[in-house]
Fold Glucosamine-6-phosphate deaminase.
Amino acid sequence: MKIKKVKNYEEMSRIAAELIIDKVRSNPSINLGLATGSTPVGMYEKLVQDHQEKGTSYKSVKTFNLDEYIGLSSENPNSYRSFMNKQLFNHIDIPIENTHVPHGDAKDPSQECAEYEALLKKNGGVDLQILGIGGNGHIGFNEPGTSFQSETHIIELAESTRRANARFFNSLEEVPTQAITMGIASIMQSKEILLLVSGQKKSQAVKQLLQGDVGEHFPASVLKTHPNVTIIADEAALSEVT
Ligand code: F6R
């Protein structure tokens, strides 16, 4: 794993966006794996700004999001589909049919998982996967204990994850209890992975990632076994690392 230490959230967002823009310009039909949550918001803003000012085109790019809440339709403002449309897709020239987010309101969520995994494979997999990390080490919504062999599957969200994400909902009760997530094996298939980490509240997770053992108790630790991972972490996120 390569680690790029940056000053703060702003610098993390800028460097991540520059890296993506470079990749999109050199491979206009790249498959990008995307994440939601607070971490990539600044990076998406910079991608939009670059598209508007410099014209980087996403016409042939395909995107595959990591996860979606079960039970939320794509129109629900708290769905990850809505988040992606609002943060990125509505502001760049990507054809919406090239953007993929699991359907949280699928009649048969297990079938939706199988279809999403098949879609990834049919498209040749992800070239560059963007990840954030949960305080408990989750990547995608793969909570501690998830098998490293897992493909896209249904997950029971950890209580800590529901609490962390309750800030987007009116109350904790409204936060769904389950999600569809790409599995650890699905994520590990990506040719390249970029993990973004910012802020003091992620410092313990970063410490465990860098100094702890590889094991299913801490999902992000699997990244140590991938040949092409870059972590962009800011000073606050690295503050516990000695
Ligand atoms: C989001 C996702 C999650 C988040 C993680 C960190 O699609 O898969 O793993 O990356 O929960 O969330 P934030 O960035 O909100 O701290």
About this structure: The beta strands are 2-6, 31-34, 62-65, 67-69, 99-100, 128-131, 153-156, 178-181, 192-197, 229-234. Residues 78 and 170 are 10 Å apart (CA to CA).
